[in-house]
Amino acid sequence: MTDVAGPESVPISELDLAAEFPQATREQWQELVAGVLRKSGKLPEDFAGAPESKLVTRTYDGIEIQPLYTAEDVPGDIGFPGLPPYVRGARPDGQVSTGWDVRARFTGDDARAVNQAILADLEGGVTSIWLSVPPASLADALNEVYLDLAPVVLDAGTSYEAAAEALFELFDEREIPASEATAVLGADPIGLAARSGSAMALEPAAALAARVAGKYPKVRTIVADGLPFHEAGGSDAQELGALVAAGVTYLRSLTDAGLDVEAAAGQLEFRLAATADQFSTIAKLRAARRLWARVAEVCGFASPMRQHAVTSPAMLTRRDPWVNMLRTTVACFGAGAGGADAVTVLPFDAAIGRPDSFSARIARNTHAVLLEEAKLAGVADPAGGSWYVEKLTDDLAHAAWAEFTAIEGAGGLVAELASGALAGRLASTWEKRSKRIATRRDPLTGVSEFPNLAEKPVVRTRLESPVDGGLPRHRYAEGFEALRDASDAYLASHGERPKVFLATLGPVAAHTARAGFAANLFQAGGIEAVNPGATDDLPGAFRASGAKIACLCGTDDAYAAQAAEVAESLGAEYVLLAGKGSYDGVDANVFAGCDALEVLDGLHAKLGVAR
Question: For the chain, give me the number of helices (H) and strands (E)?
C-alpha cells in the first residue's frame, strides 16, 4: 500500500489510530454492563452468567440479537456462496452504481387520473411504473409516457395475459424494438393463489414466459412475491422461505415449458417487504441473494436475483399517518443499503385511501434525499463487514433455508398453500406478533404510544378493499385503530369521548410519571384521561369530571398509605391502579408490559363504547 507522508512519515499500513489508548477487553465491557444492570435492578448480585445475556432480544425466527458483536461472532464458513465480509447486490463488482430503480405504484379505474399521476411522478424523479389498471385502460394510462425510458411493471392479477398483450401492442405502436423493450409483466399465479385461496394454473404464465424470452430479451414475465406472506404476519425467514420456494416452483414450470434454466431464471423478479427495522431489512435482502445463489449453484445458472423492495403495507397506520413518512424513510434506507435493484416507497396515506399529489411527492422525494443528498448508492453493500449485519444475515439465511426446505419437503409451495400448513405457521407468528403489539413491546408511535386524540384526521378517497379468500392481510396497528374508531363513533353520538379519571396522589413531581403512563395507555384506546393535577379534593374532582372509572396514580409509598382510602372515597364504579400491587378497593392494575388491548377493550365495554 502507498505510504502517506505525515509528520513522522509513518506508512499508512502501520498506522494504529488507537495506539495511545489501552486495549479494551470484553471482560472490561462486561464489568461495565454488570454495573449498569445492577444499578437498575435488572441483575441480581449473585448472578453467575454473562451479564449481557440480560440484554439479548429474539426475533420472530428465534434469532438472538446480542448487544455487542465482534469478529469472533461471524463464522468463517457459512455454508452458502458469498462468504463474509460481503454479500453484494446484483450489480457486478467495480460497476459504478447509479442507484436503485425508483419505482412508484399506480392503481385505479380512471385511466386519465392515473396518467396524470404517472406523468407528475416521472417529472419528479420516478424511473419506473408499477401499474395496476384494467388491460383495456393501459394505453390511456400510459399516454405520453416514453416506454423506452420508463419501464412498466404490470400488476393485472388474473388478467396478466391480456395486460401483456396490451403492452406488446403499445411497443409496436410506438415502434420500440423488441430487443430494447423493457418491462415486467407481473404474472404471479402462486401469489394469486396465496391471496385468493384458489388454485391457479402455472402453465399459462410459463407459456407466456417462453414466448417472451424468444422475442423480448429485456422483458421479465414472472414476479415471485413475498408480500402475501409478510402481510399475513409472517417472519422474515418465513417470507424468504416462501419467496425462494416460489422461485424454485416457477423455475420448474418454466423449464417444463421449454426454457433452459438460465433463460428461466432470467424471467423472474422477486418482491420483498422493507420494514422500519433497518437492520432486519438489510439482512433480509442480503440473505435472499445468498439463498438464491445457493439455488443457482445447485441448478446450474448464473442469473442473479433481481429484487424489488416495497415498504411494508403492514407497518403503515391510519392514525397519525405522518409518522409513516419516518417508517418508509427508514425502510427505503434499509432496502437501498441492502442492495435492492428497485424500491417502491408507498405514500404515507396509502393505508387510508387513494394517495394525493402531496403524499406522492413526499414518497418520491424520500428516494431523492437518500440517493442525491445522502449518496446512499455510492457504495456497494455499505453494511458489508459489519459484524452485526453479517451475523444477522447468516442467521437469517439459515433460518430461511430451513423454512424453504420444509416447504419443499412437504411437496412445494403450491401444496403447502393448498393444505393450509403454511397458513398455519404464518398465523402462529402473527399470534406472537399480535401479543407483542398488544403489550406494546413492539410499539407503534402515534397509535399504541404517544397517541393524539385531538389529531385532525387525514381524509382520502377510500379504495375498495381487495377481495381475498386466502392468506389474511394484517396491519400492525389494526387492533388499536379499531378501538380509536369505536371512540370516534362514541364521540359522534355522545358529544364527548369515553373518559377515565386520574386520581393523582401527592404533588405533581410524585405522580406525574405514572399519570403520564396511564394517560398514554388510555388515549391509545381513544379514552380521554382527565388529570386534575395536585389536589386535596380527589372525590370532588372525580365527581366534577363526570367519569365513572378512576385510575390511581402515585408512588409506591403513596399507594401503601392512601390507595385503599382514596379508592373507597371516590365512589367509582371501577378502580384501576397504575403500577403493580394489590390494595383494597382496587379492581385491576395497568403497568408496563400489561396487555393494553385487553385492558382497553375491557374499559370500552364498561364505558358503553360499542365495537
Answer: 20, 15
